[in-house]
Design a protein that fits this description.
single chain, 86 residues, mainly alpha, elongated
Length: 86
């Protein structure tokens, strides 16, 4: 792994980790009234496209960080849909 990969992993980790506080807040409060399903859906689709791009470019930092982000955003979408019913 070279320094460019390390920079990519660090940048991706910062973006990936930024979703976690929102997920934890929704999980604890069960409130999603002010969270946009459309925004998280578009973001998640964009992340999916980044994964495809990373696979095409064979860029492991892009694949790893965006795969984690994709999973976290799917969790958030699930929470939005599930708690919106309540």
């Amino acid at each position: 792994m070279n320094y460019i990969d390390i920079i990519g992993l660090f940048a991706g980790a910062c973006i990936t980790l930024s979703t976690i506080p929102q997920i934890l807040k929704v999980w604890k409060t069960k409130k999603v009234k002010d969270i946009s399903l459309r925004t998280f859906s578009i973001l998640t689709f964009g992340i999916f496209i980044w994964i495809i791009y990373g696979i095409i470019k064979n860029d492991l930092p892009i694949i790893i960080t965006n795969s984690i982000s994709f999973c976290l955003n799917l969790i958030m979408i699930y929470f939005i849909v599930y708690y919106e019913k309540e």
